[in-house]
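Predict structure. Input: Type I phosphodiesterase/nucleotide pyrophosphatase, 543 residues.
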Amino acid sequence: MSPNRIRIPAALAALGLLTAVPVASASDGHPGTRHVLLISVDGLHQTDLAAYVARHPHSALAGVVARGTEYTAARTPVPSDSFPGLIGQLTGGDPAATGIYYDATYNHGLLPAGTTSCAGVTPGAPVDLTEDLDRDQTRLDAGQGLSGLPGSVLGMTGVPQTLLNQAGLPVDPRTCRPVQPHEYLKVNTVFEVARQAGLRTAWSDKHPAYEILNGPSGTGVQDLFTPEINSTGPAGAGDWTTDNAATQQYDGYKAQAVLNEIDGFDHSRTRRSGTPAVFGLNFQSVSTAQKLPKSGGQAGGYLPGGTVPGPVLTSALDFVDGRIGAFVAELRRQHLDRSTTIILSAKHGQSPTDPSALTRVADGKLLDGLNAAWQAGHPGTGDLVAASADDDAMLLWLTDRSPAAAAFAKQYLLAQNGTGTDSTGAAKAFTRSGLQTVYAGADAARYFGVRPGDTRVPDLFGVTQYGVVYTGGTKKIAEHGGVAPDDRAVPLVVSGPDRDARTVTGPVTTTQIAPTILRLLGLDPRALQAVRQEGTRVLPGIG
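Output follows.
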């Protein structure tokens, strides 16, 4: 979780009752597809993939593209962040359907974490589905208590909900019980539909809070491997994201889990369970290489101009290519290459790619100023900002949800000019709080396609000027979570048996991955609630 996200306790939204998940009926799947391996290379842009394949025509990534349909105009949901990005891929829905706008948000209808006596408690609380929920955030096993870490991490449980600190979860006022991450998701997942059909499921990701992927039933992912990326890293200083070599080591554990699953074992390789029908992982190495100014004494990010990767990012791309090559080779060795479709994409991109465009803005100072101005004009009131998520967009939840309060916040922010820093740390001026457009109150709800007063939607959504990253320091040169093309223009390739290379240049969204997975497996895409709600289509060219 980014250190610049501010959460000030104040108020959270009630969970709606979920409708029953319909039974998935068989449909025409792709002949021979019995397994779908989904790979999210977080931060990867479509331009990165195209350039890498051009420079390395014999690489594993080039092979994946050569055996598949490549969608060159794919876009992620907004905000383009990890939770809405991956959940979109696995439900078929945008935040309006899923209720998931970020990993750390706010809900005006739930009660604060730790509430045990709910009568008379004013609703409103943070929903923090990050590493903060771990039983022990400092440990790679999130507090499970394994000896011999980090090497023993593959012995981590595949049921990470057991590693969550229940006192950190918001409380449902109707039951006065903590709301589990999977209960907070409003729609079902690909994993749940697959399990209904008697198929095996697995996934590997970066926090135990990814238990949300289990879906409302709580049983979607049978083997969920979630080593904590924000735990203390191997050097003992900083977490696994502060050095790209450490991030690659971390990703290596998840890649080994996938190799074990290809071989028919669970992620730990201690129990034979059969190769999953739906499985996969996310890679973090590219994302951290894009964000770090330096790592191992070398420059992170892209070279001037923003198209050629620097040395750290080049190393990360080569690492990911090598791991994907290992997956392909193991599928072939296990005679699964003819029955497995690989889908390659990314939860999000990263912005800006061009280092000269970077403007770092200290959002904490902006929000402190907003709260002070509100209190000055409204004596006796508390802070106006209940919670925020600011990376390269601004999401605010307000304690006062009146039109007047929304207008006040918008006007204040658009009037703020100041000085931030550029990619070298030198002073760089900014205007309008670094914002290009601000949607506040009912306009914010309409922007996301929900009704005004929705308990989860941000009360203010700010689209940043290109290159603006909200951070009080100089530890990162790019971020994600916004709407810029650098955030949203990610690769999407469906590669598998009997597929010839094909390029689709028309616009598609990564939410179309979910119904496509089901179609490939011969299951009904309309078994997904978000697919029915939003009319999400199977990707073109998938028969």
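The two ends are 39 Å apart (CA to CA).
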